[in-house]
Design a protein that fits this description.
about 0% strand; about 90 residues; about 55% helix; mainly alpha
Length: about 90
């Protein structure tokens, strides 16, 4: 949400369609651009579910440990909506 509504909306669409398998931070330091993952996980739990947060966290651990993970099956965008997303 810190980077604008458009990015937040796009991220929500990606989550809704099972195209997000883990989240990361674009942190640069602890003052100007802190990590903020706690806030992100809290938002995802509130907007989606605890299960979604658990899935994302578990996959992040797998990546850190160099293990494979099983991504969820993607949910297709309706054709018309897909083109509208690309045009924006």
């Amino acid at each position: 949400g810190n980077n604008g509504r458009k990015l937040q909306k796009t991220s929500g669409l990606l989550l809704k369609h099972c195209l997000v398998h883990f989240i990361a931070s674009d942190a640069h330091d602890t003052v100007r651009r802190p990590i903020g993952l706690r806030r992100a996980y809290s938002y995802i739990e509130e907007a989606w579910s605890k299960e979604t947060v658990a899935y994302l966290k578990e996959n992040a651990v797998h990546v850190l440990e160099g293990k494979d993970f099983c991504p969820q099956e993607p949910v297709m965008f309706p054709r018309q909506k897909y083109w509208k997303i690309l045009q924006k």
